[in-house]
Write a structure and sequence with these properties.
This protein is α+β, with helices and mostly antiparallel strands. It has 13 helices and 22 strands. The strands form six sheets. Strands 13-14-17-12-20-18-19 form a seven-stranded mixed beta sheet. It has a five-stranded parallel beta sheet with strand order 6-5-4-10-22. Helix 3 runs parallel beside helix 6 and helix 3 packs parallel to helix 13. The longest helix has 20 residues.
């Protein structure tokens, strides 16, 4: 009879099937010949002790046990060509998984996406990296797959109470992701592999009768008697539907401004803001693994730090082992950073957002903008960074110790940020209270991770798109907007998600609520 087992083994044993079988056989005192197969259910690194171990949850199959390696299949999607239509604004994870769920429930999704398809986006990413040209509709944030497609594809989430995380992961595997994402404690697909998965999801949506319209920007929402009637696009076309999922992402400022102009209730929301710090990956490995050489059996080391500094949380965000820093501006005249890793996480540097929790009172200088006060605060930082860095996509940069000592760096080493850097005293980018918290916080980080506070590390500013600066409030049960019937604010842009998995879950939830409403 199959037996589940929890164990700790060396990285060498965890990565070799035969060594693992011999180890387990000794552990349970049987011959290795009696073990037919070992399936790894969960895997994580335990680096708390000097001798690093791998935590494994495995299922043992013995001779005589039936073992069938099941391939994860897609659900039985229906042909919805002639079904009732639901508009989805945005083809990020919230929008795409909402569309798949609608099809499963027998409804026809019409996705409009302001950006290009996942392959077409690449030319515009090259333009921002090489030529410093920002396309407002096609960039690291906008386009098929959303911000996560070319910013890593991290799948780790703390949102397990929000919905079925495993279902989302299994759908991704069915669409071509490695089955390892079902096993790893911090699953990750990688920017090099995610585009094909996104393309396959889109092709399935179209195959089953849904529509996906690229380079189609929403310019108006038709509302009558507090109920949605449809939308208008930038070309003047009208698409009618009584149900609209608004899944535009955290950077769709024009959508927030549209809602504000139409007196659709929105509210300012606190978010976090700071810098992106880059270290040599070998340095992070030596700190986290307490070794001079990581070896081939351990993954590049990540890190996670949280501190309370000056009454605020300062923490690492979207940490990218073996990754690079990317320019993520969505309009000319601003600089924004983010990070990503390829699937193998094999780059020479590690980077992470290091951000500080903001409060609503921080937006007081922009209170005349009402619900858009946080958005205007965010803009002001990004635009200041652009001016300081020479009015290009170069990024203000400073060595970490120099920043804590309020000293301009005499030189900046070449970093993974392709457009380049400009040596700037980082205190010029941020309001004084934020600069002070960052300085104190990095000193605290250095006490927790010996070696972290070093001039080998380079800070890039700003990391400002951690989450939406606006919330679009919705009813807790129906998930409809609190004021407008038939409008379903969804995902990161509405303030109800924080990453690929939680956004995908939220998209599914909105689709289910629409199905329930239409049945009633």
């Amino acid at each position: 009879m199959p037996q589940e087992l929890l164990l700790q083994v060396s990285p060498e044993i965890a990565s070799n099937d035969e060594l693992l079988k011999e180890h387990v056989a000794k552990l349970i005192r049987v011959s290795s010949n009696e073990i037919k197969h070992i399936s790894i259910l969960k895997r994580s690194v335990d680096a708390r002790q000097k001798a690093i171990k791998m935590n494994l949850k495995v299922m043992l199959y013995f001779q005589g046990d039936e073992f069938i390696e099941e391939k994860i299949q897609l659900p039985e999607y229906k042909d919805v060509s002639n079904a009732q239509e639901v508009i989805i604004v945005g083809a990020g994870p919230a929008g795409l998984f909402a569309a798949l769920q609608l099809i499963e429930l027998g409804l026809k999704p019409i996705i409009i996406e302001r950006g290009k398809d996942v392959r077409g986006r690449r030319r515009d990413l090259k333009a921002i990296n090489v030529d410093h040209i920002v396309d407002e509709d096609s960039n690291y944030c906008f386009g098929e797959g959303g911000a996560g497609t070319y910013s890593d594809g991290k799948l780790y989430t703390r949102s397990k109470k929000r919905g079925d995380v495993t279902r989302i992961l299994e759908l991704l595997v069915a669409f071509g992701a490695s089955a390892d994402i079902l096993i790893e404690a911090h699953p990750h697909i990688g920017t090099n592999k995610l585009p094909q998965i996104i393309q396959d999801i889109r092709e399935k949506i179209i195959e089953m009768g849904g529509k996906v319209l690229f380079e189609t920007r929403l310019t108006d929402i038709l509302i009558k008697n507090s109920e949605v009637q449809g939308i208008v696009t930038q070309s003047g076309d009208t698409i009618l539907s009584s149900k609209i999922i608004l899944a535009t992402g955290h950077s769709a400022r024009d959508i927030f401004e549209l809602l504000d102009r139409k007196k659709v209730f929105i509210e300012a929301k606190p978010f976090a803001l700071g810098v992106r710090a880059e270290h040599p990956q070998t340095l992070i490995d030596s700190i986290q693994y307490s070794c001079d050489y990581r070896g081939e059996h351990l993954p590049p080391a990540p890190y996670s730090i949280v501190k309370q500094v000056g009454g605020r949380g300062m923490y690492s965000f979207c940490m990218c082992p073996g990754g690079v820093i990317a320019p993520c501006a969505t309009s000319p005249g601003e600089v924004v950073t983010n990070g990503w890793s390829p699937s193998k996480r094999d780059q020479a540097t590690a980077n992470s957002g290091i951000v500080i929790e903001l409060k609503l009172e921080d937006f007081k200088p922009f209170e005349k903008f009402g619900a858009l006060a946080g958005l205007e605060f965010q803009k002001s930082i990004e635009q200041k960074a652009w001016h300081l860095a020479g009015e290009s996509q170069k990024v203000p940069a400073q060595r970490m110790v120099d920043f804590t000592q309020n000293k301009i760096s005499s030189d900046i080493p070449k970093t993974s940020y392709v457009p380049g850097t400009t040596s700037v005293e980082m205190g010029q980018v941020f309001p004084g209270f934020l600069s002070q918290i960052l300085r104190e916080g990095f000193s605290e980080f250095g006490k927790s991770m010996r070696g972290y506070l070093t001039n080998e590390a380079v800070l890039h500013a700003p990391e400002s798109r951690t989450s939406s600066p606006v919330r679009i409030p919705r009813e807790a049960i129906s998930l409809e907007h609190v004021q407008i019937k038939g409008l379903y604010p969804c995902g990161e842009g509405a303030g109800y998600a924080g990453g690929i998995i939680s956004a995908a879950i939220d998209g599914e939830k909105c689709a289910i609520k629409i199905h329930e409403a239409l049945r009633l």
